[in-house]
């Protein structure tokens, strides 16, 4: 008999959270902390969603999405998680760029960028100050007609090198392009510029395990290997979810699944207005990614000044539309030194990431797909050679992930790495107006992406759920089962 | 609660949200954001604390009422008239 992953689960909960990405985890934690009964359902065998890791023989632990987040993460982890989680956040000092236009290392904050733009790039101080003030004052409800390209043209006309410096890291952080609304760039860029780039010391595994522990303290019922098939609606309200052959009643659902998957795969279309369906159908998915994971021989190490994050490219110009191409030479290397996991085995690991199109990888036969992966590995090692000499001899383990890999593990439609484009945010926010009690919290709209964005969106939605449930149930919150 | 009690309740909440800020020099008619380092998540936390401590609900479309201390107290006074100060 197969294992019952819902063994001893109740028949009803105040809230069911579908998906355990950082947004789902945070929403579940806040709701439980507020006294709600919460069931967290994850389809995979591990919590974390894209905030994940994997182990390989030889003591290697690879992080998938631990590349760097803004300082705001400290505050959010302290408030919505625990002081211990917040205290494990440390700054990265070596953010490095290397391309035909310029090579430099920066702490990636406003003062260092101001200095670089004035001294290395020869931009007027007043222009630099004005640019930083403009992006810092952007709000998500501002006018969306200005594109990031137009914003750059206003301040740095004809300066493709400046655009590259300002844009390339953000493109890797959230998939945004020069054609997207400028505010989606400005908000994320300003978040980083306020204090630099940070990571979680101890690795993604430690973070997710700490979060799991805290959720158990707060009483979240956590279930893995539970793939929700359907959300049932009765009399226009959330009634239950169907999962692993059971129907579990609930007053509210927070879906941390991809927005389009939530609307089109989990709920019958008849429950939505036609206009809402049209708007949801128009929401564009964000791009997917490829990654190459490389482990250095256990006795080997690389000098610290190799950097923590390296944005490298041999392309003469920076064009975001070309960044998705298979032939792109632009990639980001994340270097993980032994102090990434102070209690670990002292390994040095390198993860290379590129943005990618799902369409370029789907529909291949097995032989072609494997050959494509090998080609990705080879071109990555070619590129790494400049920064880690003789890397082919020094690396003991290498493997690649493609959009198909991301789709397989996260079930994100087309392996989308950053959820949906900006228009997804309005659709996500409008969901509870369509179906009372139905919420979405997950990467959408760029500003709600990344580790910090999705955690904060989880908080925002948890707040909405608490408001909804406390206005509909005035007496006891507990459901008798 | 009287307006003066509401003001002190807000100061308590702000003290928890922004522990590094000096709230004794807070000017009531000047926007919070011009005096304190508050972001949009901080405002959400104020709202969540108001609900938790005093069971007061502030709908999202009314968050702008929390612009300054004066506007916040004015907005909350009718909502908190029946709340007993502790």
Which features characterize this protein?
heterodimer, A: 481 residues, alpha/beta, FAD/NAD(P)-binding domain, 7-stranded mixed beta sheet, 16 helices, disordered C terminus, B: 86 residues, mainly alpha
Percentage of residues in DSSP E strands of chain B: under 5%
Low-confidence stretches of chain A: 474-481
CATH fold-level label of the domain at 12-50 and 206-284 and 415-472 in chain A: FAD/NAD(P)-binding domain
Q: What share of the residues of chain A does DSSP label as strand, in percent?
A: 15-25%
Using the 3D structure, state the CATH architecture of chain B.
Orthogonal Bundle
Largest sheet of chain A: 7 strands, mixed
How many individual β-strands of chain B?
A: 0
Structural class of chain B: mainly alpha
CATH superfamily caption of the domain at 12-50 and 206-284 and 415-472 in chain A: FAD/NAD(P)-binding domain
Assign the CATH architecture of the domain at 12-50 and 206-284 and 415-472 in chain A.
3-Layer(bba) Sandwich
Number of helices of chain B: 4
Q: Distance N terminus to C terminus of chain B?
A: 10 Å
Specify the oligomeric state.
heterodimer
Number of domains of chain B: 1
User: Measured on Cα atoms, how large is the radius of gyration of chain A?
Assistant: 22 Å
The fold-level CATH name of chain B is Non-ribosomal Peptide Synthetase Peptidyl Carrier Protein, Chain A
